[in-house]
Fold this sequence. Notes:
This protein is 49% helix and 28% strand. It is of the alpha+beta class.
Amino acid sequence: xxxxxxxxxxxxxxxxxxxxxxxxxxxxxxxxxxxxxxxxxxxxxxxxxxxxxxxxxxxxxxxxxxxxxxxxxxxxxxxxxxxxxxxxxxxxxxxxxxxxxxxxxxxxxxxxxxxxxxxxxxxxxxxxxxxxxxxxxxxxxxxxxxxxxxxxxx
Length: 154
């Protein structure tokens, strides 16, 4: 191996090490910035979800919930035959109102999507319930895409 080859290998190794350190630093900064966005997103999505829960008792029709629904969710609701909409709405509203003492136990956030893992109690029988809510930013505002509840199983 010539001195020229050795010198090239050493300089190349130093260059790679410097690049790795620089990229590592940029990566840590990018991860910190990315973590801040989901946390802020999760906070505001969680506030939105509880605003929806507070508005639910006053809702009389599916149209009253439109401000909280995604466009796709509202379109799905309008596909329900008109004669069946009141019954579907009463069932949805009744199920949600039956779940009391709702708390968020976990939040998973990406930039414009937040999944909330929920716990609550069914006031009808006192059974612990586990739920989830998918909250999506649409048109600059949070919207509820889906919410589901089931008996809690450890």
